[in-house]
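README, section 4: Worked example with a bound small molecule

Sections 1 through 3 covered apo chains. Here we extend the same pipeline to holo records, where the ligand is supplied as SMILES alongside the sequence. The molecule in this example is zinc ion. Nothing else about the input changes; the structure line simply encodes the ligand pose together with the chain.
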Amino acid sequence: MHHVLLLVTPDPAAARMLRGLVESMGDVAWEVASIDEARVALAQKGCCGVILDAAIDEEPGPRDRAHRTLSALAELRAKDARRNAAGSFVLPILLIAPEDESLDDSDARYAAGASAVVRKPLAARRELLARKIEAILGRAGREDHAACAVNAVNVPGRGVHLALTGARTRGRTGFRMNAKPGDVQNGHFVVLLRLALAHGRRRGGWSSRAQLGITRNPEIPSRLRAALRAFVSPGYEPLEADWSGSFRLSPEMTVEVDLDALEEHSLPVVRKIVKEERELRAKARKRAG
Ligand SMILES: [Zn+2]
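The generated complex, written as structure tokens:
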């Protein structure tokens, strides 16, 4: 199992770079663009660590930037300020400082709850970042994700299970969420199937509208989300969206797709998706030898 790291940055380039780095380490990245979203994500989903871009709070205001960074940091730290027996924070926060900021402020940053600080530019510091992330997770007692379960305070999404069973009634296709049966209209099911298969290939990976085939039906994700939300605890987001209009099923979810049953589906597009998935899997098996 992989760690889930919360990336808090309003900067798409930084988000892309950090997500690539986190994924190359075998972990999953959740991206949010504001402190408010980060607070909600921490409270509702929990995560193994936070990477906080100091650029998060750059709107002009009466206070200076360094001060705003510190208050954003302190606000997140207040969500989980527990320390382990060795004195390290249980929830590590890596602060990304602006390129031009002096390191004289580091004491204040650590006092406000940072576990480590790395200065921009990030592209030149990939290895340093990877080392720091590993180090702070290690100090937090999170050598692997199994250890994180012990630290979890509130992770309502954990244990949510989605099964695409292929059960059909007129114009609709069924699924089971946490063993409870539900269904959605066939057109929406096609999108759910694509999301589920993408989740199976790479948990936490994003699919664009084009990949999901919803360029002409922009309302489908919100309809699907509403259908899935009826099965989970309030506040848990089963279908996530990022700022570029891509979607994914929550990385916390486990997903199961009954390809045999779906092979018999009345919609040609479903049968085609199943066939392509089988081909992809056969190729992957071949590669794995
Ligand atoms: Zn973890």
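What to look for in the output: The pocket of zinc ion is lined by residues 3, 48, 142, 145, 148 (CB under 6 Å). The chain is about 40% helix and 20% strand.

Section 5 describes how to batch many such records.
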